[in-house]
Structure formats: C-alpha cells, structure tokens
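Action item from last week, closing it out:
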Amino acid sequence: MLAKTDGTHLIPSLDVEGKILVNPQNDELAKVFGVESSGDENYHDVIMIGAGPTSLSAAIYTTREDIDTVLLEKGVVGGLAAVTEIVENYPGFPDGVAGLELAQNLRKQAERFGAAIELAEVTEIRDEGQYKRIITTDGEWLARAVLIGTGSDYKKLNVAGEEEFYGRGVHYCATCDGALYRDKKLIVVGSGNSAAQESIFLTKFASEVEVLIRGDRWKASDILVKNVENNDKITVHFDVESSEIVGKDNKVSKVVATNKNTGETEDYEADGVFVFVGLEPNTGFLSKTDIELDEVGLIKTDKTLMTKIPGVFAAGDVRSGATMQIASAVGEGATAALMIREYLE
C-alpha cells in the first residue's frame, strides 16, 4: 500500500504480519521474504549501462522517485556528447552549448538526486528471471531492471596503417586531439555533419585542412557545408577513396587515396588524420543474450522501449529507429525511466 506524507507525496509501505514497513529497502525485503543475497552486495533496483545523455536523463527521473539507480560506464561520462566541441541544435541554447558542459550538467543533476556512477565495462547480461545479472570486467551486479544506453562509437576506415598509427597521427575526436596540431597540416576523412563540423573546429589549430570525401557531394547539413566553403583553411576533395595511412619516423606522413574518376593513386601529405565516417552501435557485449538486433546491430525494442528480455530496456542511439540526436536521446531516456517505473511497480 501507499502511505501519504504531506498530502502530495506517497511513500510505499508494506504490511507484514501486522508490522508496517515504510519505504522498505532491499535488504529489509530480503530478510522479510527470506531471499538469500548470496553475499552479493551489488544489488540495485535499476542498473543503466552507459552514462551518456540517455542514461543520465533517465537517472534524473528514476532517482527523483527513490528508485535505487547505478550507472556503469567504461569510458567518458557523457558519451560522444562530452567530446563534441559545440552542440548547436539542443533546445534552449540559442548560441549553442559546449558538449562537455552539457554532459557535466546532466551528470551533476543526476548525482544531485542520488544516482551513482561507477567505472566498469559490461561484458554480458544474464536473465535470471526476476533479477538480471550484469557481468563486468571488475565484478557482478544484480538489478530488477536494466537500461541499455551504450550509444554508438566512431566507425573505422579499416585501411592499412589506421590501427598502427592510432594515437600517433590517427584520431577520431577533434575536441580531444586537435590542439596537438597547431600550425600543422591535417586531413579529415568523411562527408557527414561530424566531418564538416570537426573540420571547421580543427582550423582553430591547423594551418591547413584537406577533406577527403568518397562520394561526389557532402552529406552534411547545408549550413555546415556553407561554413566549410567560407573557410579559407579548408580544401575539399570529392570522389576520393582513402586506401592507406602511411607513416614515417613513427608518425603519420600521408594518406594514400584513389581518385574514383581517373583510377589513379594520389598522395595527400599531412601531419595527422581525423576520421569521421559514421557511427556503429556499442552492442558487442550482447552477443550471448536473446536481445534482438537489427541489420546494423542496433537493439530492437517494443513501444515501451523494452527488449525481448522482460525488464531490460534500451534507449538512445543504441536503439533501432533512433534519430542519433542528443535531444532525442535525452527524451528517450526520460521515457525509458517512466517505463521502468511501471515495470517495477
């Protein structure tokens, strides 16, 4: 039953053999019903995998309703949003907002209401009926409900030299590494919004930026393309397919590409290469589960954002049908939190 406090808030209470337990905690319920804990102290109402905008938004809602919530993050809190220089299409910020600032504010708000964020890489989810067991590289966790908000990561070119020179001239985050190339020449590979936006950002440091695009046109928004065209430091090459990244003295020296019109090989000298060729979902850890994925590896859910496994939800950029926008990810996080609440009730 529910006990009223101030006439507006309701606190869950339980009548057990004449004894009223008000807002009982998990350990109290375990004792009352004789549930063995198996010595596992990492039990929570909800575990959210990933601590990007989706999970942080969801955590704000769950923790405000006293739902015990933990977020497990293997990398950067805030996800790709945190390493985006400026977000110009997030509602409420007419002049744009720094991605890191947005991510930090989401984190502060979630933690203010009681969300806990732990550094851990999830390797598997096991469905144990009423509980879900989360296997990580550092231990195991139990939860009544799980939200997968792992988002996506940067795609690779998968060409010779890319892996070899990663971190030594090959990069995927202009905000993170652009400052290393002050007064240097850079190459950006890609044709979407990220490639256009990050090319512009890199001109703050680099003396020259050459953009290599495999197709015959940009896939970026018109306003970003115009900004690129108006930047004297940027030169764009169309119909050019990168085939190899070459280094000298343990650092990148050039990109070898093929001109699709002539078939000839062309060399583009540079001190560094930034690759922005799209995103791929972070769903590899789900290979041992019954969770269904679509043809590109995104998680299939029903209209309540629940996966094929009862109690396991997915939202944001990792969900099939997602729009890959921060605002949408935040909205789906809020929706997922409400669906989780209903499931727990």
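Closing note: Residues 326-344 form the longest helix (19 residues).
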